[in-house]
Write a structure and sequence with these properties.
Layout lengths: L3 E5 L1 H5 L7 H15 L3 E6 H8 L4 H11 L5 E3 L3 H12 L9 H12 L4 E3 L9 H15 L4 E3 L1 H9 L2
Parallel strand pairs: 1-2, 1-4, 2-3, 4-5
Helix pairs in contact: 2-8, 5-6
Length: 162
């Protein structure tokens, strides 16, 4: 069976070391073990990496960079096609505020690279029915494939069903 191609946004990686949310941290760490076992084709973008490195908590940055060194992943650089998809997301009424530019870029990276799943812990902006439906529509228009947005625990259960 073909591996799922997953895109990790910054919130998902951030929960690898989120002491204030032990349940969610444990869920992300469980998914991380599957990623370390190469169960997925994993993609990150320069947006994700820049957000991690830009965190004001230097100790958290060190911990997350150490986690990233444990896995194999492909890195995506934002290009004009990705910026066009991000603009399309906004023009279609999703994540329209300027403060959501990086969220639109995360989605656009995943759509452009034909990922199966965006893994996120950003329930307010990404892992919700309106965004999920909108992203599915945009991904079908852009790359003729359906894309899901899931929390780590949803992906673990999906992977475990094989």
């Amino acid at each position: 069976m073909k591996k799922l191609k997953i895109y990790l946004d910054t919130s998902a990686i951030g929960y690898l070391d989120e002491q204030t949310s032990p349940k969610e941290m444990a869920e992300m760490q469980s998914l991380w073990e599957l990623i370390k076992q190469d169960k997925f084709e994993t993609l990150l973008s320069n947006v994700t990496l820049d957000e991690i490195r830009g965190n004001e908590n230097i100790e958290k940055v060190k911990v997350l960079v150490r986690f990233l060194s444990e896995i194999s992943y492909s890195s995506i650089n934002v290009n004009d096609d990705i910026r066009r998809i991000a603009a399309s997301i906004k023009s279609n009424g999703l994540l329209t505020s300027d403060k959501h530019q990086n969220d639109r870029l995360h989605i656009a990276c995943a759509v452009h690279h034909e990922c199966d799943v965006i893994v996120s812990m950003n329930f307010k902006h990404l892992v919700n029915v309106n965004t999920i439906r909108g992203v599915r529509a945009i991904s079908i228009l852009e790359c003729n494939r359906n894309i899901d947005i899931m929390s780590p625990i949803s992906l673990i259960y999906r992977e475990g069903d094989d």
